[in-house]
Amino acid sequence: MRAVSANLLALLFLCTCACVFYVWSRLESRLERYKRGLQLPRSFHVGPSPDISAKTFRALLAVPVAQRLHLGGRLDVRNVTGVRDQIGSLGSRDYHMNVDNKGSVQREVPAKFGSLVEGIFWSEWLEAQLPASFSEEHARAWRERARGHRIVRLEPGCGRISNQLATFSDGAKACVRYGINADQVQGETLTYYLANLLGITNLPPLILAQLNVDSEQWASVRRRIGGLQWSERAVVSLTEWVANLTGVVTPAPLRQESKGLRPLQGELGNKTTAELLELMQWTDLIILDYLSANFDRLVSNLFSLQWDSRVMERETNNLLRTPRGDLVFIDNEAGLVHGYRVLDMWEKYHSTVLGSVSVFRKRTAQRVIELHRRRDTRTRLLELYRDSEPLSPELGFLSYEHADVLQNRIDRLYKHILHCKEKYHQL
Length: 427
Ligand SMILES: Nc1ncnc2c1ncn2[C@@H]1O[C@H](COP(=O)(O)OP(=O)(O)OP(=O)(O)O)[C@@H](O)[C@H]1O
Ligand SMILES: [Mg+2]
Fold this sequence. Notes:
Layout: H1 2-38, H2 56-61, E1 117-118, E2 121-122, H3 124-128, H4 136-148, E3 151-155, E4 163-168, E5 173-177, H5 182-198, E6 206-210, H6 216-219, H7 222-228, E7 235-240, E8 246-249, H8 265-268, H9 273-292, H10 298-304, E9 315-321, E10 327-329, H11 338-341, H12 343-355, H13 362-374, H14 377-388, H15 392-395, H16 400-424
The structure holds adenosine-5'-triphosphate and magnesium ion.
Magnesium ion binds at residues 159, 317-318, 331.
């Protein structure tokens, strides 16, 4: 009898512990969301949008255009063409080049430093170990498939309620993003094409679609669309849904207490190949987020440090990892359009993050150099977008003002690469 009572008591105790732990973890996640809400400057606090409390970006987006921070502190557009081009020896490759899928490697084996970096660039050997996350062929095939099939189901599964997990008639899936305004869909779409222009393949393939419940594409989900209160004729983006993604914590060299990611043996020499391959993808991520002024990833973490000293230990917003180790950059809607509108507030954080990186992928750097030299980023981005996306006229493109901001950021990035090259030249 005693043994039975003791067992019952133990069971009761375990149940109580489990309950306390569950309640505590819910409280902790709520507290975190609450803190994120608090991070907003007062003037950003806004009306009744259903899910703006948790995320800095959404709260910012909900601010009426007239109240938004307008562009200030125009970027320094000094003529940098006179700068001696020390990177010319890199040569140049064509735009939109194909990236082949290569076999995967023994990613846990520590590699020799000499074969890892060449000057300020990840070595060709390391580059060769990283197959394209979403190759051009894959993206083209996915886009055709997505355009050619009906959507038969819309359900939660892609974050907030305005994003829906769509299932096509052939069983493929996509995240549909309905923007609360066109800026968001433009930001998502144009960032995808900017990444394409730079040869960055970590963004899932994307197409645009126009809501029309009478069309074959949407007819099967007419009732659901009505329930979501999505406006007819709105242009939405659809990105490939990828299974088995997990969260990603910012690696140590990119945290605020580190001296940054530098091409130094003492700092990289003891990393495994898998760690280096991830760092290599982070360098692309930082370049893309700097150019597009996307604050809704690493930059917002840096900002949150003021309130939350352990934010870097948590998973990075809008960044996921496949089981193979590829980083997937999702939710890029803060980029290019909205990010540029609120540059005043975020620029110092963008510069800090960029300044923490002194190693780059050669291919990405080459494209930045080309875009800097030709000063034709707007034209190239527009051509690529127009040629790839039939609904581009419906959604529109960057304003001339924002295209200038983009070109100026390319020029700044170029100077930063040059600066790193000078600093670590002898190494
Ligand atoms: N392409 C995708 N493939 C697989 N899962 C995805 C994809 N896009 C989004 N998700 C899932 O949806 C979650 C939220 O995505 P997203 O950031 O796009 O939406 P959100 O509304 O901003 O959500 P959150 O507020 O959680 O950031 C992701 O963490 C992931 O689990
Ligand atoms: Mg998100």
